[in-house]
Automatic annotation (TrEMBL):
Protein name in UniProt: YafY family transcriptional regulator
Residue stretches spanning the membrane: none
Organism: Cognatiluteimonas sedimenti
Domain WYL: 144-211
Domain Helix-turn-helix type span(s) in chain numbering: 6-61
Name of one Pfam family that matches: WCX
SUPFAM superfamilies: Winged helix' DNA-binding domain
Domain WCX, first and last residues per copy: 241-316
Length: 322
């Protein structure tokens, strides 16, 4: 335990203590020598102005009249929090000279300053933390900022949208509800005023975005979650049914620990295989994820989904028969 962690731990022990805490107990809980306990108590009292009272024989505690109101000044981080901050710093710096880099530059600078303050003269080996984007799509930074502003300022949004599945280009006027980061890409959940329904839009397909003066229509959180989170993946809509997928023993070691859906049901079968059940509406994304496992996965139910998987596999096989 380094000094920062000891000071945090000492502060929490004294703040929670109803009676004086003896030096031997502090030694035991902090894992340090008697002299170190006294040095840390002195630093807490004299440098940080903590209301430490007591002596070496009776023990130490915070003054009951002031202890509840005292907090450590500034930002104090233990090693786990510091490492999480370090990972966040790397995520900001390496996730892409892209959309967020300019807007979040001040935040990154503050994180780096905090890391320097807590490094106590050491250089953190930040190059040993890796963040690797996967299938990240290019996005127009101006459109992304307008979309985010409309979400936060609760104003309607007009834009051109080119559907990836058909290539069709349409004009949309929507009330943005929330911005979603999913699989390294951004999506806008919104109420489409022309279609009078909730829709999800891939932000990288949005162009010529314009924030309107008209206030956005707010959809309650329960309705949003029911419509946009009820089924598997990013595709919206109430579940049409449940898919049952069985993974062989080799794939089961991974799938049993994976989160596919908030309502998923999974169980180990007696022969080492793993059965996973998930609700779905649009089969496209679910099929892609199941077929990613190749021969290690089999869709058992429903028959219609199983037949779709069979057709896709036959089409894929045909590519290799030429």
């Amino acid at each position: 335990m380094d000094r920062y962690e000891r000071i945090i731990a000492l502060h929490r022990i004294l703040q929670a203590a109803r009676y004086p805490v003896t030096v031997p107990r502090l030694q035991d809980e902090l894992g340090c020598s008697r002299a170190t306990v006294y040095r840390d108590l002195a630093f807490l009292r004299d440098a940080l102005m903590a209301p430490v009272v007591g002596d070496g024989e009776a023990g130490f505690r915070y003054d009951p009249q002031q202890g509840d109101r005292f907090e450590l000044p500034g930002l104090w981080l233990n090693s786990e929090e510091l490492h999480a901050l370090l990972a966040a710093q790397q995520l900001l710096s390496r996730s892409g000279g892209g959309v967020l880099s300019g807007a979040l530059a001040p935040l990154q600078q503050r994180i780096e300053k905090l890391l320097d303050e807590h490094a106590t003269g050491k250089r953190w080996p930040v190059e040993r933390v890796r963040v690797i984007p996967h299938r990240l799509r290019r996005m127009d930074e101006a459109s992304f900022r307008i979309v985010c502003s409309a979400v936060l300022e609760r104003r309607q949004l007009a834009f051109e949208y080119r559907a990836r599945s058909t290539g069709e280009k349409t004009r949309r006027t929507v009330s943005p509800q929330r911005i979603t980061h999913y699989r390294d890409n951004w999506y806008l959940d919104a109420w489409d005023h022309e279609r009078e329904a909730l829709r999800s839009f891939s932000v990288d397909r949005i162009g010529n975005a314009r924030m309107l003066d008209t206030p956005a229509r707010d959809i309650d959180e329960a309705t949003l979650n029911e419509h946009l989170s009820g089924s598997y993946g990013i595709f919206s809509g109430a579940p049409r049914g449940w898919a049952t997928i069985v993974f062989n023993e080799r794939a089961a070691r991974w799938v049993a620990d994976e989160h596919w859906h908030s309502q998923q049901q999974g169980r180990h079968l007696g022969d080492g295989r793993y059965e996973l059940k998930v609700p779905y509406s649009n089969a496209r994304e679910l099929l892609m994820d199941v077929l990613h496992y190749g021969s290690d996965a089999e869709i058992v139910e429903p028959p219609s989904l199983r037949e779709q998987a069979r057709s896709l596999l036959q089409l894929a096989l045909a590519n290799y028969d030429r």
